[in-house]
């Protein structure tokens, strides 16, 4: 049995491209974009990945029932324990309650439920943070630098990839592979929701 990991850089809405990467144990990457939940789900049913690593928040702070400002659960705050761990590590991110992140979080949670319901393993990843930890330039430094960093990690088949979202999907799949191989860091409270990160660290010392 060969390993197959699916990385998804999820867009907040179904009419925008979500970057997708299928990665095998030799680090061959197949990269493209999809739009709707249905397209994503049929890809999963067709390819049956061992791990599906999604770049989107897949949970909300413990004690909250929603992300609405008008709900009384608002007093449970804006951050999850995994988000606080990112803060401590000085890794920049957008909290789940911030404007456009709400839609993304809702879509991520909905997809996770559907995919898990079909018996697949789903993890939350954060490619920007993973890139920080692996010493790979984030996309704001330029797409060529990000691609170069991923090529240096040994990923094959991405020399023609020109989309940031697709390269973040590649990074997501790479973290999914680390999870599959039991070589990862899990941030946060499992009761609430974890972010899976690389264990290896070029940029930070995690003691
Ligand atoms: Zn609520």
What does this structure look like?
This protein is α/β, with parallel strands linked by helices and 207 residues long. It has one domain: Nucleotidyltransferase, domain 5 (2-Layer Sandwich), CATH 3.30.420. The protein is built from six helices and seven strands; from the N terminus they run E-E-E-H-E-H-H-E-H-H-H-E-E. A seven-stranded mixed beta sheet has the order 3-2-1-4-5-7-6. Strand 2 and strand 3 form a beta hairpin. Helix 5 runs parallel beside helix 6. The chain starts with a strand and ends in a 9-residue tail after the last strand. The C terminus is likely disordered. The site of zinc ion has 6 residues, from loops. The site of zinc ion (ZN) has 6 residues, from loops.
Would you kindly provide a brief summary of this structure?
The chain is an alpha/beta fold and 207 residues long.
List the SSEs and their pairings:
Layout: E1 4-9, E2 18-24, E3 29-34, H1 37-47, E4 51-55, H2 81-88, H3 99-117, E5 122-125, H4 127-134, H5 143-152, H6 164-180, E6 184-189, E7 193-198
Parallel strand pairs: 1-4, 4-5, 5-7
Antiparallel strand pairs: 1-2, 2-3, 6-7
Bound molecules: zinc ion.
The site of zinc ion has 6 residues, from loops.
Strand content: 15-25%
Bound compounds, each kind once, are:
zinc ion
CATH third-level topology = Nucleotidyltransferase, domain 5
Distance between the termini: 36 Å
From the spread of the alpha carbons, the general shape counts as globular
Overall CATH architecture: 2-Layer Sandwich
Report the biggest beta sheet as strand number plus sense, adding barrel if it closes.
7 strands, mixed
CATH class: Alpha Beta
Uncertain runs are 203-207
Number of domains: 1
User: What string gives the helices and strands in order?
Assistant: EEEHEHHEHHHEE
Task: Assign the structural class, choosing from mainly alpha, mainly beta, alpha/beta, alpha+beta, or little secondary structure.
Answer: alpha/beta
Specify Rg, calculated over alpha carbons: 16 Å
- How many H/I helical runs? 6
Number of strands: 7
The strand line-up of the biggest sheet is 3-2-1-4-5-7-6
Q: Determine the mean pLDDT.
A: 94
Helix content: 25-40%
